[in-house]
Amino acid sequence: MEVTYYGQSCVAFDFKGSKVLLDPFITFNPLAKDVDVNVLSPDYIFLTHCHQDHVADLKNIQSNSGATVVAIVETAAWVRKQGVPDDKVIEYNFGGTLSLPFGRIKMVYALHTNSTPEGDYAGMPAGYVFFVGDKKIYFAGDTALTLEMKLLEDLQLDWAFLPIGGHYTMDVDDAIKAAQFVNCKNIIGVHYNTFPPIRIDMEEAKRKFEANGLHLHLPKIGESIVL
Fold first, then answer.
1. pLDDT tens digit string along 48-61?
2. Helices (H) and strands (E) in the chain, counts
3. What ranges do the domains of the chain cover?
4. What are the Cα distances from residue 44, in Å, to 1, 40, 82, 135, 198?
5. Which residues pair with 226 in a beta bridge?
6. C-beta of residue 211 within 8 angstroms of C-beta of residue 203
7. pLDDT value for 16
8. What is the tens place of the pLDDT at every residue in 56-93?
9. MF terms per GO, please (predicted)?
10. Distance CA 72, CA 204 (A)
11. In angstroms, rounded to a whole number, what is the distance separating the alpha carbons of residues 112 and 110?
12. Which of 61, 104, 174, 219 is the most buried (most CB within 10 A)?
């Protein structure tokens, strides 16, 4: 299985043939100008929350692919309002575990805010833990550092996707603490460099993670990593 990074917090998993896209924001990302959203054809689209920089390409990609969209209850209601058919929307909530053909996905806490692009209430933000074969993968979504992450430390996670840009989410230093909280050494950084407030020194970030016995992976946009 592998993951492809499309900038900001948008990643695409290929779970042995099942394609899963998270937080589609590509068209309006100046760093992802070479990515053609029209060729993306996921089976499932997971949303961590409803801010514009996580849902901007949702309707286009869903219309082209017929993907099923998965989100927390209130964000799922917004998805339906975009014209996505009811039978292509799965809503659930914290503590819930969803069983899909490729594996199980547990919804977990994220410390952030959540509103629709129109400014309406969209419920709480969320993260996900994917249990696929013998792999356990944590996608934190947009979050600040929170002690709730310690609830995941016994899972023996293989990979964790953590925001590292600061300003709106955790910064590099807090992400290091988060990696320690969840007891995961292999980290893929997301939510950085897209806009001036979240630009980081990538080499310094890698050095800080290495100094703490952690491995920070920062794939280029469009680059894939084998998990």
1. 999 999 999 999 99
2. 5, 14
3. 2-226
4. 16, 11, 16, 18, 28
5. 2
6. no
7. 87
8. 999 999 999 999 999 999 999 999 999 999 999 999 99
9. hydrolase activity
10. 35
11. 6
12. 61
